[in-house]
Amino acid sequence: MQEQIYRDTSGKLARDAATATQTIIKYANLGLLDCIRSSDGRRLFAAGQAEKVKAILNERTRGRRPQVAA
Q1: Cα–Cα distance between 18 and 54 in angstroms, integer?
Q2: What confidence tens digit (pLDDT) does each residue in 8-66 have?
Q3: Environment class of residue 2 by beta-carbon count within 10 Å: exposed (0-12), middle (13-18) or buried (19+)?
Q4: Where are the domains of the chain?
Q5: Which of 41, 15, 43, 40 is nearest to 31 (CA)?
Q6: How far apart are alpha carbons 40 and 58 in whole angstroms?
Q7: Which of 10, 34, 37, 62 is the S-S candidate for 46 at Cβ 3.0 to 4.6 Å?
Q8: CATH assignment of 7-61, given 2.60.40.1930, 1.10.1660.10, 3.30.479.30, 1.10.10.10?
Q9: By the 8 A CB rule, do 66 and 60 touch?
């Protein structure tokens, strides 16, 4: 199993997923995205979650409720 690397900020993930930073924060607060807090309190997201954000956006657009991250 590969260890997750947490380096993407909310802003970077939002740019990569073509959405608003507030959307990323909302999804993180709902437990839909995998993130940790840095020593200075910033959210850091596991690399490569932009596709997951796009999938969540797609599900919400279709009126479906996305599943909480495991």
Answers
A1: 8
A2: 999 999 999 999 999 999 999 999 999 999 999 999 998 889 999 999 998 888 876 66
A3: exposed
A4: 7-61
A5: 43
A6: 32
A7: 34
A8: 1.10.1660.10
A9: yes
